[in-house]
Every structure is written in structure tokens, then in C-alpha cells.
Amino acid sequence: MRNIVILISGGGSNMAAIVRAAQRDNWAGHYGAQVAAVISNRAEAGGLALAREQGIATQVLAHGSYANREAFDAALGQAIDRYDGPGQPALVVLAGFMRILTPAFVARYAGRLLNIHPSLLPAFPGLHTHQRALEAGCKFAGATVHQVTAELDHGPVLAQVVVPVLPGDDADSLAARVLTQEHLIYPRAIAGLLSNR
Questions:
Q1: pLDDT means per 10 residues in the chain (197 residues)?
Q2: I need a surface site. Which of 3, 16, 184, 193 has the fewest CB within 10 A?
């Protein structure tokens, strides 16, 4: 069984969408994959309770408890590696995980580390994507699922979804519209990656 480990920092809405899709579409039967664990860097992350309700293992690694980013990433890697199966290394999915990962961590999970970003990359990497899109006068926004590389928000694109920018949009209304599409595109991109393996 191919284990999927999801990393979160907050409410976990993308994590919940992935879990629902895995159950609804029987990823275990179709792809030999399951969501095995949810790990957060914040004990108060609402997504942890959602994961527990689904019987998924959870763990908290508070990044402030570590001397530096390298130490935190090393501990995070050890936690993830507990879910590696024989010949089936875990797929690591960032779902609102608000930490910049070290190059060593990214290299450790090269090719199996995914992220979703709320813009049409390569446009607007980093934070405040919706406000930046509005300020630039964009007519369209969207989200991108990509493989993670050492350069922030620049890995190979696996899928994108386009959302119109509507008259009167502010950053919050645009973010909400994009998020509903993230919940659709992220599980599909993961399923596509699993099916290709």
C-alpha cells in the first residue's frame, strides 16, 4: 500500500478534500494508496481533528521546539519516513503547510513532494497571491498543483485551474472562489500521479 502523508498548518480544507476523494474513489483499490497520516507544525490546527475523525493517524511537530529549520525538517523527515512501505516510499502532500522547507528536505522527497499554490504559477509565487493578482489587474486567477523543488513555488506543474476575477472582487472573495476549485483539482492531480506510477 502506498501511503500518503499530508502536512498541514491550519484548518485542513484541502486535506479534507483529499481524504474524501480517497474514500469516495477507493484509492486503496484503484491505486494501492491511502492517506496514512496528517502531520502539523501547529497543535491548534483544525485539520488535525478532521483527520482524527476519519481514523487517520496525526502528529504535531511544533517548529518552535527546534533549534533551527534544519533540525525541524530532520525531525519531520523522520516522522514521514515511519510511513514508508517496502519499495513504496510515502507520497508527501503539502496542504496549507506554512513552512519553507530546506533544500535537504526537498531533495529527500524529490519527485514525491507535492504542493498546491493559489495562483497560476509562475505568476505570483509566495504570499498574498490574490491581492497581488487584483492589484495587477488580472482577469483570471487560479491554482496550481506542482512538484516541490528547492526554489519556492517553481516546481514542475502537474495541474492548473482557472477562475475568473469578477467585478467587485476583493482578496477574500477571490480566495474563496479559488479555494473551491483547489478542493477539486488537488485530489485529481494526486490520483493522476498515483495512476501513472
A1: 96 97 96 96 97 97 96 97 85 96 96 97 97 98 97 95 97 98 98 87
A2: 184
How far, in Å, CA of 185 to CA of 66, rounded? 34
CA angle 129, 119, 188 (to 5 degrees): 140
Q: Do the beta carbons of residue 195 and residue 25 sit within 8 Å?
A: no
- 183 included as an active-site residue: no
Sign of the alpha-carbon torsion through 135, 17, 30, 34: positive
pTM for this entry: 0.96
Separation of alpha carbons 189 and 47, rounded Å? 21
Angle, to 10 degrees, between the axis of helix 13-24 and the axis of helix 46-53?
A: 20
The pLDDT score that the predictor gives to residue 87 is 73
Decide yes or no: CATH 2.60.40.10 for domain 2-196: no
